[in-house]
Amino acid sequence: MDKKEFSKLFDHTQLKPYASDDDIKKLCDEAKKYNFKTVAINNANIEKCKTYLKDTDILIDAAVSFPLGQCTLETKLFETKDAITKGAGELDYVINIAELKNGNYDYIKKEMEGIVNICKKAGVTSKVIFENCYLTNKEKIKLCKIANEVRPDFIKTSTGFGTGGAVLEDVLLMKKHSSSEIKIKAAGGIRTLENVQKFLEAGASRIGSSSGVKIMQQYDKIFNEK
């Protein structure tokens, strides 16, 4: 994989609640310098990023119902539409974890269908955040089966704001139980080139990280590409 292909694996992330305008501009400047796939941000920053990334192919990746997933379905659908209207080209939403725990699988499917359908109509990439640190393997597999019916573009391990982030065993499990047409995003605590390589080998095809610059610098050092 050459450097351009490698850099496009990354959603360059700044989701801290106290991120300033300077932090968001820095994120976008870094994304342009390293040619990342997206900047992953909270929705209040979409229009700022749209300005900073004008005339580039870098997409804005909006986080919906982040990080808890505990909005009503109506709120999530509105937030999805609003994010797309304001300029999001990709969208990551957190499932209603409580309803999954309640065994309310019809609700989880309805939620996923609603958000994914809005994204498909708009030509926007959809990613479903499982937040695996709170789930049993049985629940993760059930989510994969629901995703196989609904067909989001990606299923994703974590927000990075829970009690744990991405782990290789979860990616392997998600890969095993999901359709080959659904891609996997690993996110949460991925900070080194070595970690990235392990997650790619396990089956991930997108990486969410706030350490993208550091990882690209490690790539340059090892592969001597500037």
UniProtKB/TrEMBL annotation:
EC nos: 4.1.2.4
Active site positions: D92, K156, K185
Gene Ontology terms describing biological process: 2-deoxyribose 1-phosphate catabolic process; carbohydrate catabolic process; deoxyribonucleotide catabolic process
SUPFAM superfamilies recorded: Aldolase
Gene Ontology cellular-component annotations: cytoplasm
Keywords: Cytoplasm, Lyase, Schiff base
Family to which this protein belongs: Belongs to the DeoC/FbaB aldolase family. DeoC type 1 subfamily.
Recorded GO MF terms: deoxyribose-phosphate aldolase activity
Main location group: cytoplasm
Gene3D superfamilies xrefs: Aldolase class I (3.20.20.70)
Positions of transmembrane segments: none
Signal peptide per UniProt: none
The keyword Isomerase is assigned to this record: no
Location in the cell: Cytoplasm
Protein name in the entry: Deoxyribose-phosphate aldolase
Catalysed reactions, as listed in the record: 2-deoxy-D-ribose 5-phosphate = D-glyceraldehyde 3-phosphate + acetaldehyde
CDD domains: DeoC (cd00959)
Function text: Catalyzes a reversible aldol reaction between acetaldehyde and D-glyceraldehyde 3-phosphate to generate 2-deoxy-D-ribose 5-phosphate.
Pfam families documented for this protein: DeoC
Pathway(s) of this molecule: Carbohydrate degradation; 2-deoxy-D-ribose 1-phosphate degradation; D-glyceraldehyde 3-phosphate and acetaldehyde from 2-deoxy-alpha-D-ribose 1-phosphate: step 2/2
InterPro entries according to UniProt: Aldolase_TIM, DeoC, DeoC/FbaB/LacD_aldolase, DeoC_typeI
